[in-house]
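Morning - 6-O-phosphono-beta-D-glucopyranose inputs below, output right after.
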Amino acid sequence: MGHSAAVWDHKAAVEVTKDWNGIDQVVLRSPRGSSTRVSLHGGQVISWRNDQGEELLFTSSKAIFKPPKAMRGGIPICFPQFGNRGSLEQHGFARNRVWAIEENPPPLHPNDSKGKSFVDLLLKPSEEDLKCWPHSFEFRLRVSLTSDGDLVLISRVRNINGKPFSFSFAYHSYLLVSDIRYSSCTYKHSVVFSEVRIEGLETLDYLDNLCHKERFTEQGDAITFESEIDRVYLSTPNVIAVLDHERKRTFVIRKEGLPDVVVWNPWEKKSKAMMDFGDEEYKQMACVDGAAIEKPITLKPGEEWTGRLEISVVPSSFCSENLDPSPFLRP
Ligand code: BG6
């Protein structure tokens, strides 16, 4: 745990508390008042607030905060399997395990610590995990909050096995939006749109989970939401934008090592079928996940993989032409 800005008290910036199940949660704060909360259950980010104290991630009012299942919302980690693409439990076991805080992890690049509040978490497989997935690994997750309030997640998976293994991965990010439903109306002779729109995935191929994972090609336009959607977009750019017109803000998702993007909204019927999700709550969320799914990551003994995600929120006048294609090369 740490914070490197000289004038900023790192002890006040990183606080460990217990939830009502006795599991540790870590709260990170930025000098300007943003904060994020990470549960050691799943290594899951369960809250991210801007400097006005407004929540930016969706959490269901019916979420169950009780192990062994992951809480519905925030950013659960899907590892070592995504969805039902394998023999393990849905989305793998990492989101259902209790992680540990690691005080002195192997170092990251100095830029990953500079000016940030952060916590380092570690997951190692239990005896039970090794029975269903017989691969020894160390999974290190650093969650950071920059001084501007951006959320940064860095995952490092190391093979400490004698043999190679493969896995898939996703940061299952539940973004909080005003109203996902696309609608338009005419006001004073001009068309007014209410919409949430994803830019950056136009013209790409995707696997449609609602059509037996069949491959399709996205047509030219940005993605808007009019019905259930459950897709894995392939070979995506490193920067994606999720625009929320009503809130006049844009989530900018920068990623590295994560070629795919999952887009999920359960819409009306599926919402009603999920016991930990309100019937109408699909309107307030969009999952847009940086992921590695189509081509699983393979690690030889001793090798390590890194997958990074940075989410920032900017005013909605921002659009895809402004997106910097080299997300982590900024000073
Ligand atoms: C999405 C999957 O990422 O997660 C969907 O593409 C799935 O198929 C959804 O329904 C939620 O999964 P879970 O296990 O958290 O209910």
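Note: The chain is about 5% helix and 40% strand.

O.
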